[in-house]
Amino acid sequence: MKPEIWHQLGVKDQEFEMIVNILGREPNYVELSMYSVMWSEHCSYKNSKNTLKLFPTENERILLGPGENAGIVDIGDGLAVVFKVESHNHPSAIEPYQGAATGVGGIIRDIFTMGARPVALLNSLRFGPLEDAKIRWLFGGVVSGIAGYGNCIGIPTVGGEVYFDGSYSGNPLVNVMCVGIMDQEKISLGQAKGTGNSVILVGARTGRDGIHGVTFASEELGEESEEKRPAVQVGDPFMEKLLIEACLELIDMGVIVGIQDLGGAGLTCATSEMASRAGTGMEIDISLVPRREEGMLPFEVMISESQERMLLVVEKESEELVKKVFDRWELSATVIGRVTDDKMVRVKEKGEVVAEMPAKSLADEAPVYCPEMKTPSYIEEVCRLTHSKIPEPADPEEVFLKIITSPNIASKEWVYRQYDHMVRTCTVVLPGSDAAVLRIRGTKRGIAVTIDGNGRYAYLDPYLGGITAVAEAARNLVCTGAEPLAVTDCLNFGNPEKPEIFWQFYKAVEGMSKACQEFNTPVVGGNVSFYNETAKGAIFPTPVVGMVGLLEDLDQRCTIDYKEEGDHILLAGQGEPTAGGSEYLSIIHDLLEGCPPEIDLEQEIKFQNFILEAIRAGLVSSAHDLSQGGLAVALAEGCFKNSLGVQVKLSAERDIRWDILLFGEVQSRAVLSIKPDKYIEIMELADKKGVPLKQIGEVKGKDFNLEVTGPEMRKAINLPLEEIIEKWRGAIECMMEL
Amino acid sequence: MKFGVVVFPGSNCDLDSYYMVKDVLKQPVEYLWHRDKDLKGVDCVILPGGFTYGDYLRPGAIAGFSPLVESVKEFAHKGGLVLGICNGFQVLTEAGLLPGALYLNISLQFRCVFTYLKVENNRTPFTNLTEDRALKIPVAHGDGNYYADPETLTELEKNGRIVFRYCNPEGEVTKEANPNGSLDNIAGICNEKGNVLGMMPHPERAGEELLGSDDGKIIFDSILKFWGEN
After folding, report:
1. What residues of B are in contact with residue A423 (Cβ under 8 Å)?
2. Can you tell me the distance from the alpha carbon of B74 to that of B93, in angstroms, rounded to the nearest whole number?
3. Do residues A439 and A454 lie in contact, with contact meaning Cβ atoms separated by under 8 Å?
4. Chain A hits for B13, Cβ within 8 Å
5. CA triple A362-A368-A371, angle to 5 deg
6. CA end-to-end span of chain A, whole Å?
7. What does the alpha-carbon distance between residue A554 and residue A66 come to, in Å, rounded to a whole number?
8. What DSSP state is assigned to residue A572?
9. What residues of chain A, 178 to 237, have a C-beta less than 8 Å from chain B?
């Protein structure tokens, strides 16, 4: 075999040698193709595996950690929550609608594979600036792709985040998270147990779509990427809806021995992983695989990423039952092979062996690399920012309006009104709050779900950015009244073979691990997406954290919006606001510099405990953590839903500048509103918990009135709420109509 | 009173209607499978929202031909109560039980938002308990832009068959209140006899205060009241 052949498949020389050693001979083209997809970064995590070991993955609630299709967490009453996030960045970069749609389809399969009913979707999106027409096409396409798939399949898209920054111009990020609820007794695994058991391929027919999709995902985007559009699959949410019903019906009947979805690397991945996990082998005949097109070669069948397919392992006696159930849902179910005891994946075509290799070698024995690390040179430069270097703006109102209408801060209604966020009638806190809350039917409980990341912070300080991504997610849950349980992560980075990029990756994971440890929120699964770069450079390192929390009593939920005129507004927590990495610095001063807000994890935990306890005790009418845009934005966001104005007076005690006080960003702080008669009780609780808490204003009138006074200084924002709401709500829509 | 919720391949609001009847209305309810012809003796058939057969051809187009819809037609002709919600409304127009058609939203986008509905006819079996105020009920659809030819529209107007129009919270029918561009803000219509209602908004999603509104329950309570009196 000529080196060009394996190079073309993205297999390195030393990897080819390894394959020869494993097989004791040169692989044929089918085998080489199978190794190439399974040993791609996307499937094997060969560059990230060692680093990911830093994550804590266990505690008393974790029923199943990383390694299977999704993690499972105990939520009491014999129920469990199952969730995972995955990226579909590269496909979305060249075919936004289908790229995003199939991302949704893929993550949903990961959830129901485990035996769970998918109940919610979230997404975390990053694009370049909307001033660019191509970016608007990408953004619009991704949103409608997510909507097209999620709405049709009937799983509500309840939350998410969208940010725009130049670093994502050529390489948008599309991270999709799915959450499922299940009966703990119904956990099903992707394991091919039981020699002689039948292997059944169900769902859609196999076509040539998505050939080498995982390889495409494991390289940088370039000019020629456009030509890889055929590597993007096409989704059929209707088919997947039927698949969910049929598979869950069978899982419910207890006839499934093992089940796995066909995603990246298609049949190759499903057969080898299922066999490898069970310590068995699998033999299939691909001439039995229902095809979408004629003349497909064996390697094409084996690595096709045609969507909406699942591989089931059942006892021979159950074959008829499986067919009956699938027939009822008008789906095909075809026995294509059986489980063997020789630990080999053997692929035949009409009885003739076309590929044969140890299952474990495909699934678990990809090479593991420890890429080189080097601190990027920009790190030292960006840290040098001091507040005195930032010119002081003249007009606080002008600054405020610019920030509130920045697409990063502005209302995301343009996005979420395209998503069905109410179907299944369990969404109790709708999009637009800190986290979405879903009820769990038949119980008093609810779950809160959120997805968060801040690429700008992670760029300026990946370690701190990693910590704060986890802290922010936990704070968002706590502000809805939920106790954070566990994490799924999507790690979006550039090319790990570049030492500066790998350093960003390592530092971010280190930071996230530290935070997950401190919050006792283990990582139960996730996804690494490398090679997010174009000729113009890498994206911001963007660790995205999906987190699920539990509300023991749904009545104790909390939202961000003020409830009633006359309520007190309090500022909780401590921490010095900083301009470093802030939206303010970016929008007003066009600077990307500084150290992102520091965090003291011990203080943060105290702070979160206080907020949670105050909400549970019924002391709090609304809670909203300070995030991008700082205090001014957090105060304003509470006004929007119920059109309630505020009057807030702040005194700049030390020599802190008014612009930093209002718009600087900070960790461990939140704006609370309370009924006046709860004042003493909440102050006592804060005191007991060691968390600073002070009254700064009240809910009043129809204006947004925020005043800062200091020694010889008085600055004020005094604007009609109606004007702010109109601008905030319409900002993204306006840009999309350019 | 027994309700039946039709399940087509691709229905996805079937369980919402099911739980609305079972948990909120506390009435017996059964699923009706699209391939069966048996309506299991139900007193009211609900055609739920969703994307029947993926709606790849035209919303509701294929479902309109299913065996169960044949039975539903017979049931409706005999005066049985039929409520088509969202995709169910689309199926009813495709099956010829209601006139007109539902086009793509004028925004060309899916819309999931709370809307307000002005009740134009409170004498139907579905609206007899409504009061003189706008109902807060959400929509979630890509094809809710109702159209009928001028003669049909006149006929609908004249006979009180336009049951709901989109309005603002104050009850005024305005262009801004219309989420999909439907003709004259039409959100729901009924047949001549008034026993078949099609509506784009989802009353089953507004059955509990917990979900942001319980105005949808008034529609189900009206059905119960009508049935009790007849």
Report:
1. 12-13, 16, 49, 140, 205
2. 15
3. no
4. 154, 423
5. 145
6. 54
7. 29
8. E
9. 236-237
Q: Which residues contact A265 (CB under 8 A, 6 or more apart)?
A: A37, A38, A40, A42, A43, A214, A303, A305
Between the alpha carbon of residue A207 and those of residues A152, A204, A294, A306, the distances in Å are: 23, 9, 9, 6
**Cα–Cα distance list, A127 to A33, A124, B110 (Å):** 33, 10, 21
Nearest to A144 among B109, B205, B210 (CB): B109
A80 Cβ neighbours under 8 A, 6+ residues apart: A63, A72, A73, A74, A116, A181, A182, A183, A184, A187
Residue A394 neighbours by CB under 8 Å, 6+ apart = none
pLDDT in tens, A311-338: 999 999 999 999 999 999 999 999 999 9
Burial of A297 (0-12, 13-18, 19+ CB in 10 A): middle
pLDDT tens track for A219-266: 777 766 666 656 677 889 999 999 999 999 999 999 999 999 998 889
Per residue, the 3-state secondary structure of A142-178, as one string, reads: HHHHHHHHHHHHCCCEEEEEEEECHHHCCCCEEEEEE
Active site (annotated) includes residue A387: no
Q: Which of A88, A90, A212, A421 is catalytic?
A: A88
* A439 contact residues in B (CB cutoff 8 A): 210
DSSP A704-727: EEEEEEETTEEEEEEEEHHHHHHH
Q: What's the average model confidence in pLDDT over A21-27?
A: 97
Q: 3-state DSSP call for residue A328?
A: helix
CA distances from A411 to A517, A582, A662, A706, B212 (A): 33, 18, 19, 21, 20
- Tokens at residue A131, please? 């001033």
What's the rounded Cα separation, in Å, for the pair A47 and B32?
52
Would an 8 Å CB–CB cutoff place A239 in contact with chain B? yes
Distance (Å, rounded) from C-alpha A567 to C-alpha B168?
28
Structural domain count, chain B = 1
Contacts of A225 (CB under 8 A, 6+ apart): A90, A93, A94, A216
Q: How far apart are CA A460 and CA A515, in angstroms?
A: 18
For A255-302, the pLDDT digits (tens) are: 999 999 998 889 999 999 999 999 999 999 999 999 998 999 999 999
Q: B118 forms bridges with which residues in the sheet?
A: B165
The whole-angstrom separation of Cα A349 and Cα A609 is 61
ipTM score of complex: 0.97
Chain-chain contact of B211 with A330 (C-beta, under 8 angstroms): no
Name chain B contacts of A154, Cβ cutoff 8 Å. Answer: 12-13, 50-51
Tell me the per-residue pLDDT of A587-633, one tens digit each, with 9 for 90 and over: 999 999 999 999 999 999 999 999 999 999 999 999 999 999 999 99
DSSP A262-288: --TTHHHHHHHHHHHHHT-EEEEEGGG
Domain extent, residue B151, equals 3-229
d(CA A427, CA A269): 35
CA distance A101 to A391: 45
Does the beta-carbon distance from B10 to A241 stay under 8 Å? yes
Are A73 and A62 contacting, i.e. CB atoms less than 8 angstroms apart?
yes
Rounded CA-CA distance B114/A641 in Å is: 13
Contact assignment for B9 to A419 by CB distance below 8 Å: no
CB contact burial A312-329 (16+ within 10 A = b; e otherwise)? bbbeeebbeebbebbeeb
Residue A48 pLDDT exceeds 70 = yes
Whichever domain contains B58, its CATH number is: 3.40.50.880
| H or E stretch covering A623 | strand A622-625
pLDDT digits (tens, 9 = 90+) for B62-93: 999 999 999 999 999 999 999 999 999 999 99
Per the prediction, chain A carries an average pLDDT of 95
Question: Helix, strand, coil % (nearest 5) of chain A?
Answer: 40, 25, 35
